[in-house]
Amino acid sequence: LAAWAEATESIEIGPLVTCNSYRNPELLADMARTVDHISDGRLIFGIGSGWFEKDYVEYGYEFGTAPSRLRDLDAAMPRIMDRWSKLDPPSTRKIPVLIGGGGPKVTLRITAEHADVWHYFGTPEEMAGKSAILDDHCARIGRDPAEIERSVGIQQHRITKDLEQNADAYY
Fold it and tell me: What is the pTM of this model?
């Protein structure tokens, strides 16, 4: 990211997504703030709870369970925000947070609480359903769902001739 930040001038950059489990939350916050400065405020901080067991095994990290990784992400987000509030110099702007995932009970609740952008991989129907759940989580905490930008990834094998007919489900 630092190399991209140095080599570009106008695009926003960020991981889709970094795994929360690979770094201490305070270190992640410091790293993000550094890339924010190198990029002159173009970083989007993408984060998720992790899912690819092979990476955990190869890095020597405890894979745990999906619930344990989500608990770790839930605990990390306030620590990251707190660290950003204390850094000197501070970030160049409020660093946008992108949370990836679609778990209806926990991931989307964490997204409602902390994210500026939500990213999901799925079909138009899945995206619409998950988006409605995210809206419900926002309502529970008194947040305007329109504050969270929606982002979707469509895997090539899912692209079909009827994509244009379903495009409205993504918006």
Answer: 0.89
